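User: Here's a structure from my thesis project, written as structure tokens. My advisor, Dr. K., wants to see whether a designed sequence matches the one we expressed. Can you design one independently, without my sequence as a hint?
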């Protein structure tokens, strides 16, 4: 294709004029002879041009499809990462408030009293052990 000015590269009339100039080079004449069959001159160049046009067309279709699929892949990946980040960042109360309230009530009403009883029992045993050890050292006082 002939060199196109950068400002005219998207002008449809300029593109058509350049394509017609390219096709003028490939004008061919076909001679038909009944004894030997058809002969042509210049048709090999035309066939090469058609092949090249088909290859360019397929290349553009494939490249466009690959690029759109890859951009869609990155877009969907970024969307999923944003969704997961939103889910990870939620508090337990915002995630499922009924389960959170049940666990909170269970902790306040069951686990804390049991922990208080265990701590009181351990501290009472330690106090008894401290008193017993202290009295064993002073057997003769009284």
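Assistant: Designed independently from the structure alone:
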């Amino acid at each position: 294709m002939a060199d196109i000015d950068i400002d005219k590269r998207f002008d449809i009339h300029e593109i058509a004029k350049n394509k017609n100039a390219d096709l003028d080079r490939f004008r061919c004449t076909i001679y038909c002879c009944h004894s030997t069959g058809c002969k042509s001159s210049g048709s090999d160049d035309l066939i090469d041009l058609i092949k090249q046009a088909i290859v360019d067309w397929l290349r553009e279709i494939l490249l466009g499809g690959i690029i759109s699929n890859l951009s869609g892949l990155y877009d969907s990946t970024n969307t999923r990462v944003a969704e997961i980040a939103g889910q990870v960042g939620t508090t337990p109360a915002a995630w499922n408030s009924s389960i959170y309230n049940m666990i909170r009530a269970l902790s306040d009403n069951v686990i804390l009293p049991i922990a208080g009883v265990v701590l009181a029992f351990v501290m009472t045993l330690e106090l008894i052990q401290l008193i017993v050890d202290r009295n064993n050292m002073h057997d003769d006082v009284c």
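When you compare it with your expressed construct, this may help: The longest strand covers residues 29-33.
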